[in-house]
Write a structure and sequence with these properties.
Layout: H1 24-29, H2 50-56, H3 61-65, H4 68-82, E1 87-88, H5 95-100, E2 104-107, E3 111-114, H6 121-125, H7 136-149, E4 154-159, H8 161-170, H9 178-186, H10 188-212, E5 216-221, H11 229-245, E6 254-258, H12 265-269, E7 275-277, H13 284-290, E8 296-298, H14 310-324, E9 330-331, H15 344-356
Parallel strand pairs: 1-4, 4-5, 5-6, 6-7, 7-8, 8-9
Antiparallel strand pairs: 2-3
Length: about 350
């Protein structure tokens, strides 16, 4: 767990000049008592918002992430509409690959598809390096968003090394991630080299966002839930820690979230983060118990209930708040992303409910 609030960030950074350091989100992330219960939603930027669909018209997914003014606008849309306590940087898990020069595209109805899978040591050795110059569109998008957000913090975002590597080995989305799970045992040297490459790509991507003005960072491990605890600790945790090493000294709170990771929470915390996100499969009181009552939690409203009758959803939100109350800090979020069919008015109503309950 990171403990120091000293920072290498510039004096005009939002965490340093007073804009966001005492915001509800950052206060809660640091284990303090916020002025109101903070809430933001994963995948809040887009998908369910009509203004997102309008902004994206004519642009592919990856193209929209790499146009700074468009990426900033999409980042800001849910903050304007829902009055959430943070913006989450609009991006995609595979953007660092794209910026490095790896051939990858988002195929409609499929997801990320690589021109060629990465399956041997020679494939890994041939991977291009992600350069600082290539990250400039990310920095510019962050600068634009942060300038408008004011006292509302921006959270930086990156896919965790295992999730990036899983896409690279399979060449496309997979249900069981058998390829990377096999590679880590069948060719551990190639796996270690690939995990190091993805760790550095994710870490550089996060650092660019934080240095440009993001006030916190979340490492998102979509596919870690496919791993046993032993495999995670041995073959994955070191690369997640390596990714976070790129940003550890900046003084910004660090968050780690994965789906299906109830059995991995302690190991995910121990890679060196301040906050652990919990998906909808595990109650927050049990997550707090498993983490020894010493870790700030984030989560974990079940996205499936966003379409339930309001009395059902309200009761569930109150249960989540109650379950998270024993943790050293709690930031409300979903136990995964906003479903695309969600009524935006429901999300706004959930935010209003959370803000109405005394912290």
């Amino acid at each position: 767990m990171t403990t120091s609030h000293t920072s290498l960030l510039p004096a005009d950074h939002p965490l340093m000049d007073g804009r966001t350091a005492t915001s509800p989100l950052i206060t809660a992330y640091r284990g303090g008592k916020p002025s109101r219960r903070p809430v933001w939603f994963m995948r809040q930027a887009g998908r369910s918002l009509p203004e997102y669909k309008e902004a994206r018209r004519g642009y592919g997914m990856l193209e929209s992430c790499l146009k700074p003014e468009l990426a900033a606008e999409i980042t800001l849309q849910p903050v304007r509409r829902h009055q959430v306590d943070a913006g989450i940087f609009y991006s995609d898990i595979v953007i660092p690959l794209k910026l490095a020069g790896v051939g990858v595209e988002i195929v409609s109805g499929v997801g990320p598809v690589l021109d060629a899978p990465i399956r041997t040591a020679a494939d890994v050795a041939a991977l291009p390096e992600l350069t600082e110059d290539a990250l400039e569109p990310i920095r510019e998008a962050v600068r634009i968003a942060v300038a408008e957000l004011g006292t509302t913090p921006l959270i930086g975002f990156a896919g965790a090394p295992f999730t990036l590597a899983a896409y690279m080995v399979e060449g496309r989305p997979s249900r069981d991630h058998l390829g990377p799970r096999t590679m880590m045992h069948a060719d551990p040297e190639a796996w270690s080299a690939l995990a190091a490459w993805t760790a550095d790509a994710s870490g550089k991507f996060l650092r660019a966002q934080l240095e440009a003005g993001a006030s916190a960072a979340q490492l998102f491990d979509s596919w870690a839930g496919s791993l046993s605890l032993a495999d995670y600790v041995t073959h994955v945790a070191p690369s997640s820690a390596r990714a976070l090493d790129h940003v550890r000294g900046l003084g910004a709170p660090l968050v780690h979230f994965g789906t299906g990771t109830s059995e991995l929470l302690g190991a995910m915390r121990d890679v060196g983060v301040d906050v652990v996100g919990v998906d909808y499969r595990l109650s927050l009181d049990e997550a707090n118990r498993r983490l020894g009552g010493r870790t700030v939690l984030q989560g974990n409203i079940d996205p499936a209930l966003l379409s339930a009758p309001w009395n059902v959803l309200e009761a569930h939100v109150r249960e989540v708040i109650s379950a998270g109350s024993a943790a050293p800090g709690h930031v409300l979020n979903l136990g995964h992303g906003v479903p695309p069919e969600t009524d935006p008015a429901v999300l706004t109503k959930v935010v209003d409910l959370i803000h109405s309950i005394e912290p």
